[in-house]
Amino acid sequence: MSDADSAAAAADSAQRLATLQRIGEKSRAVVELWLGEGAGRGGPPVSPELAQDFVALGQRLMASPMAMVETQAAFWQDYLTLWQRTTQRLLGQEAAPVIEPARDDRRFRHAHWSENATFDFIKQSYLLCARCLHGTVKGADGLDAKAQRKLEFYTRQLVDALAPSNFAHTNPEVVQATLASGGGNLVKGLENLLDDLARGKGELKVSMTDRTAFELGRNVATTPGKVVFQNELMQLIQYAPSTRQVARRPLLIVPPWINKFYILDLQPKNSFIKFCVDQGFTVFVVSWVNPDEKLSHMSFEDYMFQGPLAALDAIEQATGERDITAIGYCLGGTLLASTLAWMKEKGDDRIKAATFFTTMVDFKDPGELGVFIDEEQLAALEAAARDESAGP
User: Fold this and answer.
1) Contacts of range 118-121, beta carbons closer than 8 Å, 24 or more positions apart
2) Which one-letter DSSP state was computed for residue 14?
3) Residue 358 half-sphere exposure, CB side, CA atoms within 13 Å?
4) What is the 3-state secondary structure of 104-160?
5) CA atoms of 360 and 374, how far apart (whole Å)
6) Other CB atoms within 10 A of residue 98 CB
7) Could you report the per-residue pLDDT of 336-353, keeping only the tens digit for each?
């Protein structure tokens, strides 16, 4: 080995040692957090009715043994075919797949999932098992629609969590990266895991983005605006039109209170607010506060009165215009729709037109959202909140 190679190897070893030292320090800090602030905390509450639903599923399946036998027989026949075709591939022969992932399934797009016989076998084994489990739950007779929806949802979560793409040894992309980096990617991943645990004070709080990459006014929330009104629940931001010809009616945007207002004003190239001012609109946007225990008494009605209705008064004060157009986004759209219904009852016609972005106004069939907002789940969440507020 040359002197240059020896120096490079020494530098690489020193870097790995420093990384392992940081991991040791972070691991100790995470354990201390868990034993201190995190002690006794569990995951999100699950209603006891869910366990009862799975028991009911088992009873329904046992009540139809022939259907179970047929399902298992079909599964094992497919699995036997998979073994035969994998053996053919290992012997250098061509063999068609028994099952293939859906077109929109991004987990198995790496070439090795198909080109490598071993990884292809792992992939197809998983897909066969997933299909069998999904079909078993979906085909159970006698369950009510709500229970069926819950069981299908949680079964899908379990099956997705067990996908081979989620484990280092059965994911060819991870194996390839591990060989190329000498294991450095796994060390870095462990370091990121510890950072996420530290951020959650002993519980996993996954970071979805680089928290240092964005700065308000520089590469997020870049459209110039000013706060013209505020109360306990929100600030109202005004954006001036960038055109010489200006629309008479201002535009009010009501975003959801679970998002920041600048989800509609990221960068100039994808800012909806900038697009609106470039069309000649005077734009007003509600920026909701981050609620804490001081606002725990606030109701949906409070958000209506101190949100859209308060904004209407402030817009008239700022511009002299009584009539406006409005946009409601997501939960902000639900709030806007409710406000319009209240205004209709009161004979208030200041909002002349309304547009809704990804808004649900009919909750009779909320789809998979219903898994989390039924009465049992809400009761479990409320009980957990009471226990947490009561303290040890």
Assistant:
1) 119/170, 119/172, 120/86, 120/89, 121/82, 121/86
2) H
3) 5
4) CCHHHCCCHHHHCHHHHHHHHHHHHHHHHHHHHHHCCCCCCHHHHHHHHHHHHHHHH
5) 16
6) 20
7) 999 999 999 999 999 999
3-state secondary structure of 164: helix
CA distance 324 to 335: 17
Q: Read off the DSSP letter of residue 309.
A: I
Pairing assessment for the beta strands 283-288 and 234-239 based on DSSP bridges: antiparallel
78: burial class by Cβ within 10 Å (0-12, 13-18, 19+)?
middle
Residue labelled with tokens 């299908």:
152
pLDDT in tens, 312-326: 999 999 999 999 999
> What number of residues does the chain have?
392
Q: Which of 334, 340, 289, 291 is nearest to 312 (CA)?
A: 340
Backbone angles phi, psi at 82, to 5 degrees: -60, -45
Question: If you average pLDDT over residues 109-126, what whole number do you get?
Answer: 95
Q: Give the Å distances, CA to CA, from 66 to 61, 70, 292.
A: 9, 6, 55
pLDDT of residue 4: 66
H/E element, 390:
helix 375-390
284-307 mean pLDDT: 93
Q: Which 3 state secondary structure label does DSSP give 315?
A: helix
Residue 334 parent element (H or E) = helix 331-346
Mean pLDDT, the chain, whole residue set: 85
Q: How far is CA 83 from CA 72, 77, 155, 171, 352, in A?
A: 16, 10, 26, 20, 66
Report the catalytic residues. 330
User: What is the token pair recorded at 140?
Assistant: 């159970």
The one-letter amino acid code at 26 reads: K
Tell me the pairing of strands 351-357 and 251-254: unpaired
> Measured between alpha carbons, how far is 321 from 248 in angstroms, rounded to an integer?
8
The span from the CA of 89 to the CA of 117, in Å, is: 7
* E strand intervals along the chain: 226-230, 234-239, 251-254, 283-288, 324-329, 351-357
Region 73-94: what's the mean pLDDT? Answer: 94
- Tokens representing 234 are 């929100």
The rounded percent of the chain whose pLDDT value lies above 70 is: 86
| Residue with token string 């406000």 | 339
Q: Which two tokens stand for residue 376?
A: 């049992």
Q: What is the pLDDT of residue 268?
A: 82
The stretch 169-178 carries a mean pLDDT of: 93
